[in-house]
Amino acid sequence: MPDHGFAPPSDEPPPPVPPQPYPRAYADRPLLLPNGAVEGAVALRIDTLKTGSDRYTTGGLLPSLRVGLGLVELEAGAAIYLFQDTPADNGSGTSPDDPDRLQSLYAIGRVTVAPETAIAAQFIASMPTNDTVKTYVPGAFVEHKEHFAQVASLRATGGFNYVHPSYDDNSAPSQDSLDFYAKARVAVQVAPLVALEGATELHYVRFTGDMPYYDSYTSSLVSVGIVGNVAPDFDIVAAFESNSDQLGNSGFDGKAFTVGLVGRRIP
Amino acid sequence: MRTIIVSTLVLTGCATAAQSAHTLAPGKTEVTVAGSRNKTTDQSSDDPAIYSGQVMVRTGVSDATDVGFQLSRTTGTSDALWGLTVDPKFRFTEPTAQTTISLGIPVGIFFADEPSISSTSTAPSSGGFDYGGLIVAPTLYVGQQISPTAELLIAPRFYLIKPDTHVYDDTDLRAYFGGSVGVRITDPQRHWAVTPELAFTHINAEGSGDSTTLLTLGLGISVGN
Questions:
Q1: Cβ proximity of B114 and B130 under 8 Å
Q2: Which of A6, A77, A139, A204 has its CA 20 to 30 A from that of B116?
Q3: Residue A1 C-beta-side C-alpha neighbours within 13 Å
Q4: What percent of chain A has pLDDT above 70?
Q5: Are B212 and B45 in contact (CB under 8 A)?
Q6: Helix count (H) and strand count (E) of chain B?
Q7: Residue A25 touches partner B, C-beta closer than 8 Å
Q8: Is it the case that residue B188 has pLDDT exceeding 60?
Q9: How far is residue B34 from each of residues A201, B13, B166, measured CA to CA in Å?
Q10: Model pLDDT for residues B59-92, shown as the tens digit of each residue
Q11: Binary contact (B48, A215; C-beta < 8 A)
């Protein structure tokens, strides 16, 4: 019988495809964690704001957790106040004297709707540095990650938030607003285990309440970060962010520095 | 403050290149996120550093021509300048040459952006977006391949600015000169690039006859197919 190079027919099922290992290269990682994976992170964030001769510095801890559930991913996190260094009394009345330890909480649920594309709902509750106001922020966004040959990626996000400040004594007029935003993040694998990530985001905020002065405004920031995969399941991350605002009459120089550790368990 | 305004007009017109002297082949697209820090060298000036963020999408349209679209904005939450630029680039040398020479002619408009004031407010300004003017910045790109994954990039450029009365008292055409030096580091397949740059722009101060130099530190990170 001539050999045509074909395997003889068989009723046996094909062998299972072994699962792909979770990439150590940051730029190659999928948008959502795989089913059953858990990732925890903790970061130290230092914010500095300089206006005139006054310099404000605040420090906080940012713990977060992500859990992969197949087509769904859940994420939650918090911002915890650590310290502040502000001018003793500059007469502005804006220096917070008694910050709450827990400054904000957030939760995000992402659902995959197409390869590397997800829609998400999020909720943020922030407790600023006094006891009279809390801000509740429900929102939704769409996110897509495009990969380029396992060494580069583009992550694009667009969405909106409904920002609702709530005053305990109902003394202030409504300052509710809609925040429409777009983000672009590019990550490049400059070494097999080291990635550089640049990001920029734009916001358009439209007040819907009784804000007596502004109807709307825009804002933006730019950041650059580095991610090093120091062990198979651990990353060290560091980032610099600028939200300086120097062209207005009350211009300020705002920067943020973040350094953190990310660990994960992949089934 | 005038220096800030002039500086910002310049930076919205691409003070740094954030791209190769090569042109992208047809079917190739590149997305770049870039940031820059801009400050005058005048020690007596109290003008602060200004930060800007940019997003640029470039695509190849022929063997020796590509075109980019760039959106830029100074960072912050109140007053800002936006730039919107179309940036065609034409390559004059062979694609395999060690030294690549090309000409870019970015043409853009910029807007001044203030918080929009409520109609119930008694504030004098209405806020919102105000047309700021037109900018053209012809740029010569000279790229020297110093290794298979690194290109030394020198990019002298002129800035021609036709302002609107929102930013100047008149609409006379202004011209400035500048340039940038950078290194573009890529992976072997050129799916990504990191481009740190140092740029300068010579600025004549309005009326006083004084001049200053705007120094820009820029970092562009690009990904593409």
A1: yes
A2: A139
A3: 4
A4: 84
A5: yes
A6: 1, 13
A7: no
A8: yes
A9: 12, 13, 27
A10: 999 999 999 999 988 887 767 788 899 999 999 9
A11: no
Nearest to A188 among B55, B116, B223 (CB): B223
Which DSSP string do the residues of A168-215 spell out, in sequence order? TT--SPP--EEEEEEEEEEEEEEETTEEEEEEEEEEEEEE-S--SSEE
- Number of other residues whose CB lies within 10 A of the CB of residue A231: 11
Token pair listed for B109: 């408009």
Total residue length of chain B: 225
Give the one of A27, A184, A254 whose C-beta lies nearest to B33's C-beta.
A184
Closest C-alpha among B81, B100, B99 to residue B15: B81
Strands (E) in B77-209, as ranges, are 80-91, 99-104, 107-114, 116-117, 128-136, 139-147, 150-163, 174-186, 192-204
Instruction: Give the confidence band of A2 by pLDDT, cuts at 50, 70, 90.
Output: very low
Amino acid, single-letter form, for residue A50: K
A170 touches chain B (CB under 8 A): no
Identify which of B52, B25, B27 has the alpha carbon closest to the alpha carbon of residue B113: B52
Q: Cα separation of A183 and A154, whole Å?
A: 10
DSSP H or E stretch at residue B11: helix B2-12
Q: How far from each other are the two terminal CA atoms of chain B, in whole angstroms?
A: 42
Give the CA diameter of chain B: 63
**Interface contact A194, partner B, CB < 8 A:** no
b or e along A147-167 (b: 16 or more beta carbons within 10 Å of the residue's beta carbon)? bbbebbbbbbbebbbebbbee
Is B46's pLDDT higher than 70?
Answer: no
**Residues near A227 by beta carbon (within 8 Å), at least 6 away in sequence:** A26, A187, A194, A195, A196, A197, A235, A236, A237
Token pair 């300086």 in the structure block, residue: A244
Measure the CA–CA gap between B87 and B73, rounded to whole angstroms: 17
Note if the pTM is more than 0.90.
no
Q: Which residue of A has its CA nearest to B114?
A: A217
Cα(A162)–Cα(B27) distance, integer angstroms: 40
Three-state secondary structure of A111-146: EEEECCEEEEEEEEEECCCCCCEEEEEEEEEEEEEE
Contact check, Cβ <8 Å, B35/A197: no
